[in-house]
Amino acid sequence: MSEQPHRPRQAAPPQGEIGTAWTAERRRGTTDAPAPPSGHHHGQGTGTLAGVLMLCGGVMAVLQGIAAVAEDDVYARIGGYVYEVRLTGWGWIHIVVGALVAVTGWGVLTGASRARPAGLALVTLSLVGQFLFLPYAPLWALVMVAIDVVVLWALTAWTPAAPPSAASATPPRR
């Protein structure tokens, strides 16, 4: 039996261990990791979510309003209600607010500067309107309230991308 000389094992570079994502090389920008796409900004997804849900929620509110104006048998007839408005009145409220929410959702998707504050105000108004509409269509109103809550969260969590400035256009130091 021949003895083979003992060779020390070379340590392999860490593979996916906790704490290796922010090594000194990565901070200096010398890794081979691909750079994120130039148009991608943190929080961009929540703005898209808000815009899409505003479009969908607005269209659904318009359809809800049309059904109420047509005095469809979809909605329950209720007796005494503190915030009672005729079903036709609720229909027009939902049509107008829903159309405004949908248009503002399109503005959020296209990046209009005033769409975010307008969206916050209109979706809050929509949420209150849906809450007051609970006796007429409880399950549907709760679904719409949930959508409005998610939209409010998305609009408040969204940080629109700052326009590129001269300072951010300079390449990072190595």
Overall pLDDT, averaged? 78
Q: Any idea what the radius of gyration is?
A: 27 Å
Distance between the termini: 54 Å
Gross morphology: elongated
Order of helices and strands: HHHHHH
Helix-residue proportion: 55-70%
Low-confidence stretches: none
Main sheet record: none
Oligomer: single chain
What is the overall number of helices?
Answer: 6
Strand content: under 5%
Give me the secondary-structure category: mainly alpha
Q: Number of DSSP strands?
A: 0
Helices and strands, with pairings:
Blueprint: H1 24-28, H2 44-69, H3 87-110, H4 115-132, H5 138-157, H6 166-169
Description:
With 174 residues, this protein is mainly alpha-helical. The chain is 56% helix and 0% strand.
Q: Can you describe this structure in just a few lines?
A:
Helices cover 56% and strands 0% of the residues. With 174 residues, it is mostly helical.
List keywords for this structure.
single chain, 174 residues, 6 helices, elongated
